[in-house]
Structures are given as C-alpha cells and as structure tokens.
Amino acid sequence: MATLSTATASPVVRALSPAATAALRDVWPILLTLFPFAVAIGAAIAAAPISGLAGWSGGPLVWAGSAHLAAVTLLGAGASWITVVTTGLAINARFAVYGAALSPYFQAQPRWFRWIAPHFIVDQMFALVLARPAEERDDPRWFRTYYLTVALLIGAVWMPSIAAGILAGPVIPESWPVEFAAPAALAGLLAPGLKTRSAVVAAIVGAAGSLALEDIAGSYAVILAAVLGMAAGTVVTRVGDHRGTRESEGSR
Amino acid sequence: MTDMTAWQQFGVIAALGAGSWGLRAGFIVLPAGRGAAAFMERWLTHARPAILAALLASVLSRTATADPAGASMATWLPLIAGVAAGMLAARRWGLSGSLAAGLVAYVLAGLAV
Fold first, then answer.
1. What are the chain B neighbours of A223 within 8 Å (beta carbons)?
2. Do B53 and A233 touch (CB under 8 A)?
3. pTM above 0.80, yes or no
4. How high is the ipTM of this complex?
5. What residue spans of B45-96 are helical by DSSP H?
6. Is B74 on the interface with A (CB under 8 A)?
C-alpha cells in the first residue's frame, strides 16, 4: 500500500522534497517584496523611450533589478552601449564575491548546473542559501533542489511582474507620476545600504561626482563618479582599519 | 532619447547579461580566481552605494533640467522625506527597507509635483 501510494504520488513527493519545501517557505516573503520592484522596473521601461521587449529582456538576461533598472535608465537617456554595460557590470560586480563564496557548494554539482545555475545568483539567493544549515548546503542534491526551486519561484514572479509594469505603463493616466518610478526605486535601493560611514561617503562622492562631471564627461559621468565613490569608500575603510589597529596597539 | 534600434538595445542588454554571467560564474567555473575575488572585495562593497547614488543624482539632475522651476525642491525633498519615512516604516513593521523606502518616496514625490 505504502509502495503504491509512493509510486503514484512520486512527482508530488519529489516536488515537495524537504529542500523544495524549505525553499518555498524561505522565499515567499521575498517574492512579496520583488513584485512591486519588478512592476516599478516595468513602469520605468514603459516611461523610457526604448523598446518594451528589449527592456523586458533584461529580466531573464541580466537577472538583477538594480543593474537592469540602471541599464534601462541609461539607455533611455541616450547613453552609449559601453556606458550601459560598464555601469551595469559595476553594479553587479558584487556577484563575483557571491560566486566565490558559493563556489564550494558548486564543486560537487553536475557540469550543467555549474555553468547554468550561477546566472541566478542575486542578493536574495546568496542570503537564503547561506542562512541554511551547513549540513544541508554540503549535500549536493539538497543544495541543487533548494537553489533551483528558489530561482524558479523568483523568475515566476519577476518576469511577469516586469511585463505587467510595461503593459500597465501606457494605460496609466498622465497625472500619475510614472517618471518617478526610477528615482524612487533607486532611492529605495540605495538608502538601506547606507549603514556604514564608508558606504555613506561612497554614496555622497558618487552623487556629487555625477553632478560635477555631467558637463565634462557626458554619459560617462555616472561610471567615473562611481569609481570616485568606490575609491572614497575604500579610503575611509582603510583609515578606519588603520585607526583601529593603532588604538588596539596603544591599549596593549 | 536613445539613437539605438530595438535590436541594438537588445544587444546591449544581452552583453550586460553575458558579462553578469561571467562575474557570477567566473569564480565557480575557474576556482583559481577566488583569490582575485577576495582581493576585490573591499572595493566591491562600495560599488553599490556609489553607483546607485551617482545614477540617482544623474536622473534627478535630468528631471531638474527638463523642469527647472519645479523639479529641484519638489523632487529632491519629497524623495528624501519619502525614503526616510519608508525606512522608519520598514524598521517599525519589519518590512523590506528597499520596498518601503521606494514606495513611500514614489508616493510623496508623485504627490508633490
């Protein structure tokens, strides 16, 4: 009897394996927060003078909201392709660190997974995976099921929500301030990250540099200002480290 | 206004996607590169605030150029106030900071213009 019910219910049992169940339980609050952000990106695409389909393609191809929004904003402003790509890659540069941190869990995986699955690394995926107990992450099958379930669910919400934003954009009355979707989303992404002095300095120098360089560097102003901001943030961190080292040496 | 065709725009997005895959997968497919990731980490931690702030300033500056009379005060102040209110709401009710800040900023900026 037990054998029969397991056999007949096997697809369901597989779908609700412990890893998939854990993924479902972990990811749903994140999906609630992704939906309005994706709609805002869609609205920004609709408001920008770019192809809706090309703009939407950033959802599956880039798989990262901040870089996607930046690319759409810059494309709409007439920036060169190299500025769009460089800026987007600079925003996504943190994924290199995530990839390096997650690489031990990919080493025992099949080749197809090692090559395809990294595409789905985002902040939320990184946080969710590392929040699970180490013994679960170290089990290749468990890790693969959990990771792919999270990716699938994020994609199932993310892609249609961007499309909904694009489709809703043109029918939204003109009195609705669609043009504020991009700056509001950028401000919303920026503010929670300003937790350290070095991050605040990086943001201030980045913003000031962008305004100061606009007339000189044109569409390259954003990326040049970002490099200045990163350098300023790094200097502040190093000065803080140096001061901390001196204080700890002085207290000995 | 962009001069690119839809296919060129798609090509740019695809190039960004390919480069992003390289960043994500590079240290997984080529484990020898992990040392480089550790070396870059201190720089990369500041990439996100620096770029988002630079982009935000650029977008708001363009808005101000398009509408100099109303944009500066009527855009910056509601956005800043909205982000602050959204962050407080996020902390008070345990919401996502990005979501709450973005939504409140959007509503306030929209009401102000």
1. 51, 54
2. no
3. no
4. 0.73
5. 47-66, 68-93
6. no
